[in-house]
Amino acid sequence: MIINRLLVLKKHKYTIAFVSWMVFVTFSSLVSFKGTDAANIDIPNLDKVVHFSFYFGAAFLAVFFIREVTKGSMSLRKAVLFALIGAIGYGIVIEVLQYSLTADRHGDIFDALANSVGAIIGSLAVKSFFSKERWLKWRN
Known about the structure:
The protein is mainly alpha-helical.
């Protein structure tokens, strides 16, 4: 019984990783950190690095998630494109939600730009892992 559950988890590891990452990104983007130690960190442009990292990870994991869900039947190019468009769109939606729904957070065009650059670089990074010179193969 436990072994069967572990096998199911193993079959869906990228789905679990991607969904968990997106829940983390969403929570971190919409919850206020005012009054916490995190709000007292003052490193110039650190928030842009965080935005870049969040969406680098989102696009990177999204490609593996798409591969897992489609069992490799979708072309790498199409999966990368879907992941890229999805991550950029999600980043824009989060910025709009920060602007319209939160009291202590605000939407920022430069945050959306950092999100988009992170998504682009994340997509390109995962694409390079499946290039002909690399060891990973897109098709099973």
